[in-house]
Amino acid sequence: MTADLTGESPFWIIKREKLDQLLLNESLNNGVQIIRPLLIEKIIKKNDKWEITCNNKIKYISEFLVIADGSQSEWAGYFNLGPRKPKFANTISLRLKGLGEIPRDAVRFEFGFIKYGFAWAFPLRESLNIGLGTFINNGLLENQAINKKVIRSFGFDDFSNTPISKKLRIWNGFHSINGDKVLAVGDAASLCDPFLAEGIRPSLISSFYAAGYIDQCLSGKVDDLNFYTKKINNIWGRSMAWGRRIAQVFYRFPRTGYQLGIKRKTAPKRIAQILSGEMSYEDIAKRVIRRLLTKSGS
């Protein structure tokens, strides 16, 4: 299914390393100190402040803690932030030189090659980012024949690039992601999209609000960080709850998912609107429900 997307720029495509460098530079310009390499060995509460012991034998004292160590976070569980039993999506990604058969001004999503999963291709100036993921049977990504079939469908015959494998901690229910002077953001907080495994946007959103609520605590406007969890559950969790429901139907019963969603001409536009934040999964689900009710009543 192909569709033109309206608007000057439905969403931005940027190299991850450039985004990381931009965020790092902005942090440094605003007084952040980067200490690396550094391994945290112990964190304890002492005199209402956090005492952090690292492998350099220096103890750091902090008023607040932000847990941002990604999908493999050990500290989120240590502080009882997020679900007790995180749920993961297995993904692989690679970057290939050239654009293959993908137009420079187009993105492509595939929902038929990977059982219980998806594939996508995002073009850069002179290369293509390809990703594959599955939410149910993680062993499917180990099938090299299927992986090559997907890559070939994008217009490539060179399979020499080594893919990067990752386990992404996806949204899995409404949970507290803050404690007493501690909170989790991004993948560590299990905020990754349970339908498309997109994690950068929730990382940016949660980090923005985390900074805001910590600032309010420091200035005495609020007494704790509880509003942070409420905010993220409201602006992100409500949509992800519907995203998880949609994923459970779509990936387990792909024929039904195709008939209700992908088959429709508006499907590419809806995916772009979800990725850009213009629409939520709740909006999509309500449209599908109305469509089903209309059909059943006719």
Can you tag this structure with a few keywords?
FAD/NAD(P)-binding domain; 298 residues; globular; five-stranded antiparallel beta sheet; alpha+beta; D-Amino Acid Oxidase, Chain A, domain 2; three-stranded antiparallel beta sheet; single chain; 2 domains
Q: How would you explain this protein's 3D organization?
A:
The protein has eight helices and eleven strands. It is an alpha+beta fold. It has two domains: 16-85 and 173-237, FAD/NAD(P)-binding domain (3-Layer(bba) Sandwich), CATH 3.50.50.60; 87-169, D-Amino Acid Oxidase, Chain A, domain 2, CATH 3.30.9.10. A hairpin with a 2-residue loop joins strand 10 and strand 11 (182-184). The protein is globular, with a radius of gyration of 21 Å. It starts with 15 loop residues before the first helix and ends with a helix.
Helix content: 25-40%
The biggest beta sheet, please?
Answer: 5 strands, antiparallel
Number of helices: 8
Give the class from helix and strand content and strand pairing. alpha+beta
Give the CATH topology of the largest domain.
Answer: FAD/NAD(P)-binding domain
User: Which CATH class of the largest domain is shown?
Assistant: Alpha Beta
End-to-end C-alpha gap:
27 Å
Task: Tell the overall outline.
Answer: globular
Total domain modules: 2
